[in-house]
Amino acid sequence: MERGIDPKLKKHFKKILLSYLFGSAWLFTNIIAGVYFKLAIIGKVPIYANILFYLFVLVSLLFLLRFFYKTWGK
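^ that's the sequence the OP posted. Answer follows.
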């Protein structure tokens, strides 16, 4: 009898773990930047900071979705 985890199952768990880690890192980064530094609240900082923050959120979301697509599309 063979011991250890099936390689396909191991690969699937790796996809789940990477998706969770990258997704939560993206979420926490944007929450900290938006709430703690008040970049998401319009009127608390100069308007160009709000624009740059929301642009960063949008572009980083596109990269995150691309990562998910490549990871789960295989």
